[in-house]
Amino acid sequence: MTTSASxxxxxxxxxxxxxARSGKSRYALAAAEAAARERLYLATGSAGDEExxxxxxRHRAERGEGWTTLEEPLAIGAALGAxxxxxxxxxVDCLTFWLANAIFAKRDVAAETARLCEAIAALNGPAxxxxxxxxxxxxPATRSGREFRxxxxxVNQDVAHACDCVVFVAAGLPTLLKPSPAPRFAMx
Length: 188
Fold this sequence. Notes:
Helices cover 41% and strands 22% of the residues. The chain is α/β, with parallel strands linked by helices. A hairpin with a 2-residue loop joins β6 and β7. It is globular, with a radius of gyration of 17 Å. The relative contact order is 0.22.
Protein backbone atom coordinates (compact mmCIF):
# COMPACT_ATOMS: atom_id res chain seq x y z
CA MET A 1 0.00 0.00 0.00
CA THR A 2 1.60 3.20 -1.15
CA THR A 3 0.64 6.80 -1.50
CA SER A 4 1.50 8.93 -4.51
CA ALA A 5 4.53 10.26 -2.65
CA SER A 6 5.77 6.79 -1.68
CA UNK A 7 8.15 4.91 -3.95
CA UNK A 8 7.01 1.54 -5.23
CA UNK A 9 9.23 -1.27 -4.01
CA UNK A 10 9.22 -4.63 -5.77
CA UNK A 11 8.88 -7.49 -3.26
CA UNK A 12 8.24 -11.17 -3.87
CA UNK A 13 8.00 -11.91 -0.15
CA UNK A 14 6.78 -9.59 2.61
CA UNK A 15 6.77 -10.12 6.38
CA UNK A 16 4.17 -8.03 8.21
CA UNK A 17 4.89 -7.70 11.94
CA UNK A 18 2.83 -6.12 14.70
CA UNK A 19 1.30 -6.61 18.10
CA ALA A 20 -2.14 -8.04 18.76
CA ARG A 21 -4.87 -5.81 17.27
CA SER A 22 -2.24 -3.63 15.55
CA GLY A 23 -3.84 -3.87 12.12
CA LYS A 24 -1.18 -6.20 10.73
CA SER A 25 -3.62 -8.78 9.33
CA ARG A 26 -5.77 -6.07 7.73
CA TYR A 27 -2.65 -4.54 6.15
CA ALA A 28 -1.44 -7.95 4.94
CA LEU A 29 -4.84 -8.77 3.48
CA ALA A 30 -4.94 -5.49 1.54
CA ALA A 31 -1.37 -5.99 0.32
CA ALA A 32 -2.18 -9.51 -0.88
CA GLU A 33 -5.37 -8.36 -2.60
CA ALA A 34 -3.39 -5.69 -4.45
CA ALA A 35 -0.74 -8.24 -5.50
CA ALA A 36 -2.81 -10.74 -7.49
CA ARG A 37 -6.33 -11.70 -8.52
CA GLU A 38 -5.74 -15.33 -7.53
CA ARG A 39 -5.30 -15.58 -3.75
CA LEU A 40 -4.59 -18.39 -1.32
CA TYR A 41 -5.02 -17.90 2.42
CA LEU A 42 -2.73 -20.35 4.21
CA ALA A 43 -4.23 -20.59 7.70
CA THR A 44 -2.06 -21.94 10.51
CA GLY A 45 -4.55 -21.53 13.35
CA SER A 46 -7.17 -24.08 14.27
CA ALA A 47 -10.36 -23.84 16.28
CA GLY A 48 -9.56 -25.25 19.70
CA ASP A 49 -12.60 -23.66 21.33
CA GLU A 50 -15.79 -21.77 20.47
CA GLU A 51 -14.20 -18.32 20.71
CA UNK A 52 -11.43 -19.33 18.28
CA UNK A 53 -13.98 -20.91 15.91
CA UNK A 54 -15.94 -17.64 15.88
CA UNK A 55 -12.73 -15.67 15.32
CA UNK A 56 -11.79 -17.89 12.35
CA UNK A 57 -15.27 -17.49 10.87
CA ARG A 58 -15.04 -13.68 11.27
CA HIS A 59 -11.68 -13.65 9.46
CA ARG A 60 -13.11 -15.83 6.68
CA ALA A 61 -16.03 -13.42 6.23
CA GLU A 62 -13.66 -10.40 6.20
CA ARG A 63 -11.67 -11.98 3.36
CA GLY A 64 -14.78 -12.21 1.24
CA GLU A 65 -14.86 -13.64 -2.27
CA GLY A 66 -11.77 -14.33 -4.32
CA TRP A 67 -9.90 -16.31 -1.70
CA THR A 68 -9.16 -20.01 -1.45
CA THR A 69 -8.31 -21.24 2.05
CA LEU A 70 -5.80 -23.96 2.88
CA GLU A 71 -5.53 -24.96 6.54
CA GLU A 72 -2.00 -26.10 7.32
CA PRO A 73 -0.89 -25.86 10.94
CA LEU A 74 2.67 -27.21 10.52
CA ALA A 75 4.01 -27.91 7.01
CA ILE A 76 3.84 -24.38 5.63
CA GLY A 77 7.19 -24.66 3.86
CA ALA A 78 5.92 -27.66 1.89
CA ALA A 79 2.61 -25.90 1.23
CA LEU A 80 4.44 -22.85 -0.11
CA GLY A 81 6.50 -25.08 -2.42
CA ALA A 82 3.39 -26.81 -3.72
CA UNK A 83 1.09 -23.79 -3.99
CA UNK A 84 3.22 -20.76 -4.91
CA UNK A 85 3.14 -19.69 -8.54
CA UNK A 86 3.24 -16.58 -10.67
CA UNK A 87 -0.09 -14.77 -10.70
CA UNK A 88 -1.15 -16.15 -7.32
CA UNK A 89 -0.39 -14.59 -3.96
CA UNK A 90 -0.25 -16.60 -0.75
CA UNK A 91 -1.08 -15.00 2.58
CA VAL A 92 0.29 -16.97 5.53
CA ASP A 93 -1.57 -15.98 8.70
CA CYS A 94 0.12 -16.41 11.04
CA LEU A 95 3.64 -17.48 11.97
CA THR A 96 2.82 -17.13 15.67
CA PHE A 97 0.20 -19.90 15.51
CA TRP A 98 2.58 -21.93 13.34
CA LEU A 99 5.30 -21.60 15.99
CA ALA A 100 2.91 -22.61 18.79
CA ASN A 101 1.82 -25.63 16.71
CA ALA A 102 5.45 -26.63 16.13
CA ILE A 103 6.29 -26.35 19.82
CA PHE A 104 3.20 -28.34 20.91
CA ALA A 105 4.00 -31.01 18.30
CA LYS A 106 7.53 -31.17 19.77
CA ARG A 107 9.10 -30.29 16.42
CA ASP A 108 12.65 -29.02 16.10
CA VAL A 109 11.74 -25.33 15.78
CA ALA A 110 15.15 -24.29 14.46
CA ALA A 111 15.00 -26.93 11.71
CA GLU A 112 11.38 -26.06 10.86
CA THR A 113 12.29 -22.37 10.66
CA ALA A 114 15.24 -23.15 8.39
CA ARG A 115 12.93 -25.16 6.09
CA LEU A 116 10.48 -22.27 6.02
CA CYS A 117 13.24 -19.79 5.12
CA GLU A 118 14.45 -22.11 2.33
CA ALA A 119 10.89 -22.24 0.99
CA ILE A 120 10.70 -18.43 1.07
CA ALA A 121 13.94 -18.19 -0.92
CA ALA A 122 12.56 -20.62 -3.53
CA LEU A 123 9.09 -19.05 -3.91
CA ASN A 124 7.62 -19.24 -7.41
CA GLY A 125 5.15 -16.46 -6.67
CA PRO A 126 4.42 -13.68 -4.20
CA ALA A 127 3.75 -14.36 -0.53
CA UNK A 128 2.83 -12.28 2.51
CA UNK A 129 3.58 -13.56 6.02
CA UNK A 130 1.95 -12.26 9.20
CA UNK A 131 3.63 -12.58 12.59
CA UNK A 132 3.26 -11.11 16.05
CA UNK A 133 5.95 -8.99 17.59
CA UNK A 134 5.83 -10.35 21.14
CA UNK A 135 9.14 -9.11 22.55
CA UNK A 136 8.15 -5.52 23.21
CA UNK A 137 5.81 -6.29 26.12
CA UNK A 138 6.35 -7.45 29.64
CA UNK A 139 8.60 -10.40 30.41
CA PRO A 140 6.38 -13.50 30.62
CA ALA A 141 5.98 -14.88 34.14
CA THR A 142 6.51 -18.52 33.16
CA ARG A 143 9.47 -20.35 31.70
CA SER A 144 7.37 -21.65 28.79
CA GLY A 145 6.14 -18.12 28.09
CA ARG A 146 9.70 -16.77 28.03
CA GLU A 147 10.82 -19.64 25.77
CA PHE A 148 7.94 -18.95 23.38
CA ARG A 149 8.77 -15.23 23.31
CA UNK A 150 12.41 -16.04 22.58
CA UNK A 151 11.52 -18.48 19.80
CA UNK A 152 9.10 -15.97 18.26
CA UNK A 153 11.87 -13.38 18.19
CA UNK A 154 14.23 -15.82 16.48
CA VAL A 155 11.60 -16.90 13.94
CA ASN A 156 10.78 -13.27 13.15
CA GLN A 157 14.46 -12.45 12.66
CA ASP A 158 15.08 -15.43 10.38
CA VAL A 159 11.95 -14.85 8.30
CA ALA A 160 12.70 -11.10 8.09
CA HIS A 161 16.13 -11.97 6.74
CA ALA A 162 14.61 -14.36 4.18
CA CYS A 163 11.90 -11.94 2.98
CA ASP A 164 12.47 -9.14 0.48
CA CYS A 165 10.43 -6.63 2.50
CA VAL A 166 9.41 -6.24 6.14
CA VAL A 167 6.64 -3.95 7.36
CA PHE A 168 5.85 -3.16 10.99
CA VAL A 169 2.26 -2.13 11.76
CA ALA A 170 1.24 -0.21 14.88
CA ALA A 171 -2.16 1.44 15.39
CA GLY A 172 -3.02 0.45 11.83
CA LEU A 173 -0.10 2.44 10.43
CA PRO A 174 2.59 0.63 8.42
CA THR A 175 6.29 1.43 8.67
CA LEU A 176 8.71 -0.07 6.15
CA LEU A 177 11.64 -1.73 7.94
CA LYS A 178 13.22 -3.54 4.98
CA PRO A 179 14.59 -2.55 2.61
CA SER A 180 15.96 0.39 4.48
CA PRO A 181 18.93 2.55 3.67
CA ALA A 182 21.99 2.09 5.80
CA PRO A 183 22.74 5.13 7.94
CA ARG A 184 25.54 7.37 6.77
CA PHE A 185 27.63 8.81 9.51
CA ALA A 186 29.18 12.22 9.12
CA MET A 187 32.88 11.89 9.74
CA UNK A 188 34.71 14.99 10.87
